[in-house]
């Protein structure tokens, strides 16, 4: 189908199917290049390397998994689903930047069934701006320079109303120029180039979809490649009441666990209170209809900033969540006073979703989150952006600082008071 641009006469239209191919192409390109990105990072940083290639591949895997069985064919709807999954599945600095790029693209395509090349090009510019904005001035400065160069190339191509393939090529060319001027390769900038090249290949029909990857056994059991099924996120928080139900809370919880990541079912005098995290809210509704009258139904996209107001009483007013590199480390932090442990280390950063799932539980109203490595900063800041005042961050640079901060925790203080005291100690 063609739709003429009223300003220039360009007839190209980017459909939802085109968008799927572009994202699948990017995923396929990261499958080919992630080890090279990791190797470059190790070459530059040695043991301090955070494996940005692996992190961005896993983020991209989380982003494309919703495309496997999605029924929505509109480009705006697909972009929103992909962005939500990427934001929650983001790991490491490179993953957060990629997720924000996709979030900006979704913002530009919001509500559209399809898009002209000019409309898509402008949405892509939105994405570059979102990616730039998430980075502090001191982090990955070469990536910022590459992003600005890519934005410049895209801007001129969009103004000329070129086809989307030429817009992408212009962005790639400007990015390469920026890298050449730096006279050195940087992992962050290479991530940006890999994404653009993958989108180009996908648009031309050269890609590996996650569905094909799974059917061929591409995963840790076969080729030591990260399995995207591990990174599937459930981005929708669904809460509702079942009135007049004779079903037992335990039975409802058991049945919902088949389709949901997090499930909490609480029985009060007249109803069952249900709280789940799922990637298919409609499936949850279909199951629940047979259990009784549904009331107070609410669906929240957890990738967007939202307030958490639990319908049931939390066990604690405040809890301490700490990121631990292994089981022994988790035991140590628990002994020091941590209430919740999230696994994570420099080479395998926790995802934003893993932090959010803990905060959505009924354990506490507020949380203090203490990291154990400086490489996790952007992931924790994304959790804070989404959850707002419910969480306070303490960004310890290493495990020694983390020990000091956790040991200072006082359950009688508020989250803000605890975080303030910990930050002061680490100054």
From TrEMBL:
Gene Ontology terms describing biological process: glycerol metabolic process
Gene Ontology MF term list: glycerone kinase activity
The protein's name in its UniProt record: DAK2 domain protein
Coiled coil: none
PANTHER family hit by this protein: DEGV DOMAIN-CONTAINING PROTEIN DR_1986-RELATED (PTHR33434), PHOSPHATASE PROTEIN (PTHR33434:SF4)
Ranges for domain DhaL: 17-201
